[in-house]
Amino acid sequence: MLRWPDADYLSDLSGFCLRAARAGQFIAAGFRGKSMTKFKACSVSARKVLPTVLLGAGMLLSAANGALAADPEAAYAPDANDTVIYWGLDYSHANSSQYGVGFDAGFVTALNRNIDASGWILTGSAGISRSQTLVANTESFNTSLLIGYLWQGPRSYFSLSGGVNYIYNDETPPGSPTDGGEAGVIAQYGFETKAENALYFQSYGSISSAYSSVYFHAKGGYKTSSLKFGAEFTVYDDKGSSETMRYGVFLGDIPLGRLTMGVSAGYQDERSPGKRDGFYSLVEFSMPISIR
């Protein structure tokens, strides 16, 4: 039965799970210009890689079931939420001929049925986006499923996960190294401090064999009892182009009833020839729930 949490539960954990889940997942749809799949074109490529993805997902779910069975006592923690869901929208703009927009969503589920305690976690996400430059248009889709472990200390969280992912890019004109679909394995980490009225730090990142993609993000600032704010840095790279970097500011843990919201904005530095620098903006939402 789906159970909504009390508003005062919306704390650090929502933001941590949100960002750990999104690491390496096209978190900035506009900034790489890969999304919003043309599903007809995608279907042929998807049929080729679907058995690999399903096999990997099946192995992960089997491992998740074993992890849950190994920790039966934590599965019945009273009044505990077991899942965080999230969604977000990203937009980047250099000029009328170069821009990008994307959407992604996902979840993090505690296999011990208590997201507020250390234990095994299952993470899933999917994203779509579209971008345009002077010489090319790109529409993309990505999805992933990972299993990992979340460690909770008195002043911070840390997670480490591994799994499978799939990226599909429909590029016009075609023929680049990242045009088409590719399945791969992915590893990611996440870290966040949770002390209130203190300095705040966060970092998360991933590496995937799908198009040899690498993602890294870091935040630094200050956290109060209700908000966190500061500066952020992001870098993304794959085998198809030079890296994209972002330098910006953020405001997070904005309470909206049962939701929390975060916003970011700043300068986008494109290192690939032919791409212009510009600005980016990002808005994201998260909510802890119980699906037991």
Q: Summary?
A:
The protein is α+β, with helices and mostly antiparallel strands. Helix content is 16%, strand content 55%.
Features:
292 residues, alpha+beta, Porin, twelve-stranded antiparallel beta barrel, 3 helices
Q: How does this model look, in words?
A:
The protein has 292 residues and is of the alpha+beta class. It has one domain: monomeric porin ompg (Porin, Beta Barrel), CATH 2.40.160.40. The protein is 16% helix and 55% strand. Strand 9 and strand 10 form a beta hairpin. The radius of gyration is 19 Å and the shape is globular. The protein starts with 11 loop residues before the first helix and ends with a strand.
Order of helices and strands: HHHEEEEEEEEEEEE
Q: Supply the CATH class.
A: Mainly Beta
- Estimate nothing, just give the exact number of structural domains: 1
Helix proportion: 10-25%
Overall outline: globular
Measured distance between first and last alpha carbons: 6 Å
Q: What integer is the average pLDDT?
A: 79
Assigned CATH superfamily? monomeric porin ompg
Any idea what the radius of gyration is? 19 Å
